[in-house]
Write a structure and sequence with these properties.
heterodimer, A: alpha/beta, six-stranded mixed sheet, four-stranded parallel sheet, B: alpha/beta, nine-stranded parallel sheet, 9 strands, 14% strand
């Protein structure tokens, strides 16, 4: 288990933000430690997780996928069955409760695929808070259904036209909003990225995925899986899944990044596989950047993975070799999306479709008797257009 | 505490008049013109010239400086070229302060950046996304190259932090006037005087107020409050519009007296 020392995971993490935000980060850190230790808060969180999110989510044996890949046992942790369709609500819910505790009446968030934006818009509606979500125009185009959902939930969706018009620039705009409105506004960051305490806070709120899955797996199978796989953009579903297994040294942990057109092509979003350390959005972690420290454009068919950075704990887990990180291309992810839909009657989001492809690779290596647990982080309705229009 | 006062310290200390610091983006509107503009600004009577190092993701900046940075990057501006610009300008008049986000410094290697900046005749460095807690190792390398490191105090800074920030600063202390990002504002916040006052109580360094300052009235209201005023977006906007920024600078300088 990695414990951040002054907001660090080894050398990674930190608080590289304008001075204006330092007070708010300190307040948030103190408040979270207080809330975490408060049985009343935990009880409230558990109640909402059960009745509002729909937890625990099931563990599902994907037998037809397993057969297709040569007989390995593949289990899916069904985060796609969370209310709003992805694991993002676990984090948004917890942070909305924190915002209420802080007396902040306005929520802001960035979103790429729109799943985090929808999750924050949803908790804002549920708790009667004002909400603004920043989204790049490129992502608004490819995830138009989620834009409509947010608007129906009474959230203001602000277009971001800077830079690459995707998640990176939406995050920068959300941070600028927070710098300006920090007294009244809580920023719900969507992944285990950003300045301390966010990587820790979001991990703590997402670890319910792995905690549930580990127990369910043991109950179903009597022992732990050989490998646990999850997709990694910023890395919140993966950290949520991996945290429960970090001490289980016999369990191989694999994070799957967006390989785009292939890491060698330069058109990808695989920061751990193809990047080097630097500072983006307040944290020191692996990044896609040029020699001058400018962040380089990313590419992925999946808006949720299309981000040039990654959570600092993943950087630490990479360098300490506890987790192996690989990249899967757009093409393979789209094929896995279709395969899972046809064989299991489950339409996965494009993000975990990257992990599904790698599960197939691993299943073939393991052969019959191989046992794989995969985090199906979200459902794929939002991606139908992207998949249909993919050549 | 300090044996001698630095160039910046001497240049920015108000001596009855308010001092003016102006900001421009290296490589904006293009490399050649920015050298020309920088030289003229440095010779215009300002107390110091802040030169921005462009970054793809400038978190503390509003649209005007964001756009200028993007233009500079589109013209191929690099950290090396910024240092080159600084060396052309540093002997002209006003001391040069580089303002860079932390990642370009890390990518350049902090040790080499400090050495190169000192070689270029730079007087000090401001890193807007590097609070005192994250200052090492960058600040140590800057110090060992005899460069001032200027940290920022914001309206949201808790009183107990202000002292620590002043202690870590050299050259001057940068007082962020408002809770927000850079960019022109109509009026300066009411609490500014108190904020500058509480910084003053904790340091003998000059105190420069920045963010949102663009008008003659702003300058007048800062006289007797801060040692210096930093004007950024208004100057950058003029450069962006193809106007001569010296017209504004002269007007602002007049208001300093």
């Amino acid at each position: 288990m990695s414990h951040p020392v002054r907001g660090r995971f080894g050398p990674f993490g930190g608080q590289y933000v304008p001075e204006t935000l330092m007070g708010a980060l300190e307040e948030l850190e103190g408040l979270w430690h207080e809330a975490k230790a408060d049985p009343q808060f935990q009880l409230e969180l558990a109640g909402h997780r059960h009745a509002f999110v729909g937890r625990p989510t099931p563990l599902y044996a994907a037998t037809r996928l397993g057969e297709h890949f040569g007989g390995a046992h593949i289990h899916l942790k069904r985060e796609d069955l969370c209310h709003t369709g992805a694991h993002k609500l676990n984090n948004a819910l917890g942070q909305a409760l924190l915002a209420l505790r802080m007396g902040k009446k306005r929520l802001i968030a960035e979103t790429g695929a729109g799943q985090h934006g929808v999750a924050v818009a949803t908790v804002a509606a549920r708790f009667g808070l004002e909400c603004t979500v920043y989204m790049g125009t490129e992502d608004m185009r490819r995830q138009s259904m989620n834009v409509r959902r947010m608007k129906l939930l009474n959230t203001e969706v602000r277009e971001v036209t800077n830079g690459t018009r995707t998640l990176k620039d939406a995050t920068s705009e959300a941070i600028r909003d927070w710098v300006t409105n920090v007294g009244t506004t809580h920023y719900i960051i969507g992944s285990v990225v950003g300045p301390h305490p966010y990587p820790e806070l979001v991990r703590d709120l997402q670890r319910v995925i792995g905690d549930e899955a580990r127990e369910q797996y043991l109950q179903a199978d009597g022992k732990l899986p050989d490998a646990v796989i999850a997709c990694v953009g910023g890395g919140s579903n993966a950290i949520g899944m991996f945290t429960a297994f970090l001490e289980d040294r016999d369990v191989t942990l694999i994070g799957v990044e967006a390989g785009g057109s292939g890491v060698k092509s330069g058109k990808h979003a695989a920061s751990l596989v193809g990047g080097r350390p630097g500072v983006l959005h307040g944290t020191y972690s692996y990044l896609l950047q040029d020699g001058d420290g400018q962040i380089t454009p990313t590419h992925s068919v999946s808006a949720g993975l299309d981000y040039p950075g990654v959570g600092p704990e993943h950087a630490f887990l990479r360098d300490t070799e506890r987790v192996e990180y690989v990249a899967v291309t757009d093409k393979d992810a789209v094929a896995a999306f279709k395969l899972c839909t046809r064989l299991e009657g489950i339409m996965p989001a494009l993000e975990p479709s990257h992990a599904l492809h790698h599960a197939g690779v691993l299943a073939r290596q393991f052969g019959p008797g191989g046992r794989i647990l995969l985090c199906l982080s979200g459902r794929g309705d939002k991606d139908m257009d992207s998949v249909e229009s993919y050549e | 505490m300090r044996a001698t006062s630095s160039r910046l310290e001497k240049a920015l200390k108000a001596d009855g008049d308010l001092k003016l610091v102006v900001y421009m983006m290296a490589g904006h509107p293009n490399r050649k013109k920015s050298v020309e503009i920088a030289k003229r600004l440095a010779a215009s009577g300002v107390a110091a010239l802040e030169i921005g190092v462009p970054h793809s993701d400038p978190l503390a900046d509003g649209p005007v400086i964001q756009k200028a940075g993007q233009t500079a990057l589109d013209h191929g501006m690099t950290v090396d070229a910024c240092l080159g610009l600084a060396s052309e300008v540093s002997g002209v008049g006003a001391p040069v302060v580089l303002m860079s986000y932390v990642n370009p410094i890390l990518a350049h290697d902090p040790r080499r950046f400090a050495a190169d900046a000192a070689q270029a005749g730079v007087a000090g460095v401001i890193v807007p996304d590097m609070p005192i807690e994250e200052a090492e190792p960058v600040a140590s390398w800057l110090r060992s190259a005899s460069l001032d490191t200027i940290f920022m105090v914001a309206p949201t800074t808790a009183p107990n932090r202000i002292g620590a920030i002043c202690e870590r600063s050299s050259g001057f202390v940068y007082c962020v006037t408002l809770t927000g990002i850079t960019g022109v504002r109509k009026e300066l916040p009411a609490g500014l005087k108190d904020l500058v006052g509480s910084v003053r109580e904790r340091t003998e360094l000059p105190v420069a107020a920045g963010f949102g300052i663009s008008r003659v009235e702003h300058m007048k209201s800062l006289r007797g409050v801060a040692d210096a005023a930093v004007v950024g977006s208004a100057v950058v906007a003029d450069i962006d519009a193809g106007k001569d920024p010296l017209l504004l600078v002269k007007e602002l300088l007049k208001a300093c007296r």
